Amino acid sequence: MSGSLLHQIGLLLWKDVRVEWRARELIYATMLFSAIIVLLFSFSFLGGSPPTVEVMAGVLWVAISLSGMLGISRSFEREREADTLRALLLSPIDRSALYLAKLLSITLLMLLTSVVVVPGLLLLFGMKVGPQQSWLLFLSLLGLGTLGFAAVAALFGASLGRARVREVLLPLLVYPLVVPALLAGARGTYGVLYGTPEALSDAVRWIKFLLVFDSMAVILGLWLFEPLCAQE
Q1: Comparing 75-79, 103-107, 154-158, 209-213, which segment has the lowest mean pLDDT?
Q2: Terminal Cα-to-Cα distance of the chain (whole angstroms)
Q3: Are 39 and 120 in contact (CB under 8 A)?
Q4: Which residues span the domain enclosing 60?
Q5: Which of 182, 51, 30, 25 is closest to 116 using CA atoms?
Q6: pTM
Q7: Best exposed site among 2, 61, 156, 229 by fewest CB in 10 Å?
Q8: pLDDT the model gives residue 207
Q9: Which of 96, 102, 113 is nearest to 17 (CA)?
Q10: pLDDT tens figures, 48-106
Q11: How many CB atoms lie within 10 A of CB 139?
Q12: How far is it, in rounded angstroms, from Cα 131 to Cα 153?
C-alpha cells in the first residue's frame, strides 16, 4: 500500500471521526440502543435460571449487529443529505481509499458499541471471560467479527445511492452476507466463555475462519466498490 493511499485513508478517516465527534448524536444513539438491547435481554432472565454461555454469546453479537446497523444507516444518510458522498466520488481520490476509510470508521463505531455491550454482559449476566489468554481470544473475535461486518456494510451502504427504500435494502443486503461472520463470532465467543482447552482451541479455529472471511470481504469490497458506486 503506497504512502499516498495511506495518507488519503488517514484524511478521510479523520474527517469521519471529527464529524461524528462534533455532532455526537449518532454515537450516543448507537450506544444507548445497544444498552437497551442488553437490558431487555437481562429482564427476560429475572427470576429464572441464569443465562448460559450460549445465550451470552448470542446476546453479545445480536446487540453489536443491531446497534451497528443503526449507526451505519444514519452515517451514510448524513453524507447523502449534504451530497458529501457524491462530492467525494467526484474528487480525485482513490476509490479504494474511500472504501477503506469508511470501513475503518464503521469498525470504530461498532467497537464503541462493544464498549457498552461487554460491560453490560459482565454486570447483568455475570459473564466471565477468564485468564489473559481468553481475553486475547475474546478481543480478537470482537475485532475480526466487527471488521467483517463493516467490510460488507461499507460496500452496500455507499453503493445504494439514492434508492428510495435504502433504509430497508441495507439490512436486507448486509445481514445475509455477514451471517458467517456473526455465527463465527458467536461460536468463538462461546468457546472462550466455556473456557475448556477444547473449547478454546475451537475458538482459535473460528478466529482463523474470520481471518479468511475478512480477507475475502475486503478484497471483494475493493474490487466492487467503484462499479457499484458509479450510479452516484
Answers
A1: 75-79
A2: 26
A3: yes
A4: 3-229
A5: 30
A6: 0.87
A7: 2
A8: 96
A9: 102
A10: 677 888 888 999 999 888 887 877 776 666 666 666 666 776 777 788 888 888 889 88
A11: 15
A12: 33
Q: Helices (DSSP H) in the chain: which residue ranges?
A: 3-23, 25-43, 53-81, 84-90, 95-124, 132-159, 166-194, 197-229
- Where helices occur in 82-131 by DSSP H, the ranges are 84-90, 95-124
Total tally of structural domains belonging to the chain: 1
Residue keyed to cell 475475502: 216
What is the rounded distance in angstroms from the CA atom of residue 192 to the CA atom of residue 89?
Answer: 42
C-alpha cell at 192: 472462550
Cα separation, 114 vs 81, in Å, equals 28
Please choose, from the candidates 205, 103, 191, 113, the residue with its C-alpha nearest in 3D space to the C-alpha of residue 154.
Answer: 103
